[in-house]
Amino acid sequence: MLLPWTPHAINASPGIRSISLSALRFLNFVPATSTIDAILVEQLQSFVSDASRLFVISGAGLSTESGIPDYRSEVVGLYARTDRRPMQYGEFVRSAKSRQRYWARNYVGWPQFSSHTPNAAHRTLRRWEEVGKLHWLVTQNVDSLHSKAGQRRLTELHGCAHRVICLGCGTVSLREELQRRFEDLNPEWRAQTTAVAPDGDVFLEDDQVLHFRVPACIVCGGTLKPEVTFFGDNVNKATVQLVHDRLAESDAVLVTGSSLQVYSGYRFLLAAKEMKIPIAILNIGPTRADHLAELKVSARCGEVLSGIQPH
Length: 311
Fold this sequence. Notes:
By secondary structure, this protein is an alpha/beta fold. Helix content is 35%, strand content 16%. The protein has 2 domains: 1-30 and 74-115 and 160-228, no CATH class; 37-68 and 118-158 and 234-311, Rossmann fold (3-Layer(aba) Sandwich). The longest helix has 18 residues, at 96-113.
């Protein structure tokens, strides 16, 4: 259940803004679960033990335990809590006003979003890599938590919100650097927000962002965008091919915290099934690939994964 939250005035001063957004740490975005089936967990242990080159796909359900909301979970997901929908790629590219609104929301939410830390699930997957159990990890998340945990054999399928790309010249820079530019351009700007979204932003009314100023690329003056795949955009073909190549080298697939409703991730389950690679799923609630899996465990990722031994 979500804890009550009172709207906070957001000041452009980094220190004040961080304090204002600290209440977000106490929101619980993990869906309710029933008692864990011990037999299914034992079967998952056997599944992992039998694999020598495990391929893992992670989704938003892995990061909810770090305090980052997802889109589709019942009661606590973005779609259940609000009528807001994420930014579409076409809208971002076409409309300067949409970009202004997006970046104002992202600017306010960034101090909190960037401060999230890996949870037990991220740390467990990192350990599996260290001991040679995990061959490759593909994450649909853009929160950088796998990288923060030390994961190296990693593909960020949808990019990473901690990086920014210029749509004009392709220059990539750090999101933290852009935050300082926002602060310099908007020293007196104020806003008020009442909810948090999954991809690093918060909800603001349109009239709150009218005077928010957005910087351009320092190299060419072009449009800046998070280096993430927005809804309506496509994942880079080279990235997709790399993931298919790593999948072909694997002998088992484990899905952790993803409903696989987005085709960009689901396609790898279809490919695994075609290659007769066994599939297990650990996720609260149904997924698009349940019919493809030989094992399905409905439980919190951190709670289950931390008890699985990679031997």
